């Protein structure tokens, strides 16, 4: 992920932490509620929580304030530098979401807050497999992403991401929400909730949210 993928480039501001970011959970009550629900599940599972594609660390810090042991991972060294400078008490690392330097079953939760939006589409199955690999049994994954019609997904077929009745909002089983849900389920995770939020005046497309759980070991 580059510095301009998930977040605006902060170099035009004298204070990167003051930049108004479109995915700041503080500005949208429903987004905050979903993160708070995820935090409650993750506390129950125990273990640390990784914010994948963390950018300047907003969500990492948000979850830390809710009592979670969080750390952030981002592909962009520039974004990791901003996060470390803004939140010196938290851990941030440069890394790829599709190849995490985390032991199997080590985490109580993973969150990708629009971190998948600019990843190569062919990497998404591996990214979802990484979520499942690093989660402990009973751990949860929360994935937020742009869910506009026409977003391509692996295996969507000739009809595109909204084939099969997804419609313009991308909410059907064949739309972006259903496609991402299928990738998470294919990685062995179990659905807890899915939400399609319509865009506000600052957003170009609907937003999808998926909360999944790693089943207990049999």
Would you spell out the secondary-structure blueprint of this structure?
Blueprint: H1 29-45, E1 48-52, H2 58-64, E2 70-74, H3 77-86, E3 91-94, E4 107-113, H4 124-134, E5 135-146, H5 176-186, E6 190-197, E7 207-213
Parallel strand pairs: 1-2, 1-4, 2-3, 4-5
Antiparallel strand pairs: 5-7, 6-7
In total, the number of strands is: 7
For the biggest sheet, the summary is:
7 strands, mixed
Q: Name the overall outline.
A: globular
> What proportion of the residues form beta strands (DSSP E)?
15-25%
Q: What does the average pLDDT come to?
A: 81
Fraction of helical residues: 25-40%
Q: Output the strand order for the largest sheet.
A: 3-2-1-4-5-7-6
Order of helices and strands: HEHEHEEHEHEE
Q: In terms of per-residue confidence, which ranges show pLDDT below 50 for 5 or more consecutive residues?
A: 1-22, 155-172
Roughly how many Å apart are the termini?
36 Å
Radius of gyration: 16 Å
Task: Work out the helix count.
Answer: 5
Class inferred from helices and paired strands: alpha/beta
Q: Could you explain the architecture of this structure?
A:
The protein has helices at residues 29-45, 58-64, 77-86, 124-134, 176-186; strands at residues 48-52, 70-74, 91-94, 107-113, 135-146, 190-197, 207-213. It is of the alpha/beta class and 218 residues long. It has a seven-stranded mixed beta sheet, with helices on both faces.
């Amino acid at each position: 992920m580059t510095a301009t993928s998930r977040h605006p480039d902060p170099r035009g501001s004298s204070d990167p932490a003051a930049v108004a970011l479109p995915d700041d959970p503080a500005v949208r009550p429903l987004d905050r509620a979903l993160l708070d629900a995820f935090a409650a599940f993750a506390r129950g599972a125990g273990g640390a929580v990784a914010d994948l594609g963390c950018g300047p660390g907003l969500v990492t810090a948000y979850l830390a304030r809710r009592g979670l042991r969080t750390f952030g991972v981002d592909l962009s060294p520039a974004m990791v530098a901003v996060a470390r400078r803004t939140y010196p008490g938290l851990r941030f690392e440069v890394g790829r979401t599709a190849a995490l330097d985390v032991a199997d079953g080590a985490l109580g939760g993973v969150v990708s807050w629009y971190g998948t939006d600019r990843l190569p589409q062919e990497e998404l199955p591996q990214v979802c497999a990484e979520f499942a690999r690093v989660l402990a049994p009973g751990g949860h994954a929360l994935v937020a992403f742009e869910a506009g019609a026409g977003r391509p997904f692996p295996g969507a077929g000739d009809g595109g991401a909204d084939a099969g009745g997804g419609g313009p909002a991308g909410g059907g089983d064949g739309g972006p929400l259903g496609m991402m849900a299928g990738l998470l389920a294919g990685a062995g995770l179990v659905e807890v909730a899915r939400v399609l939020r319509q865009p506000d005046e600052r957003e170009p497309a609907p937003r999808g949210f998926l909360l999944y759980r790693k089943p207990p070991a049999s």
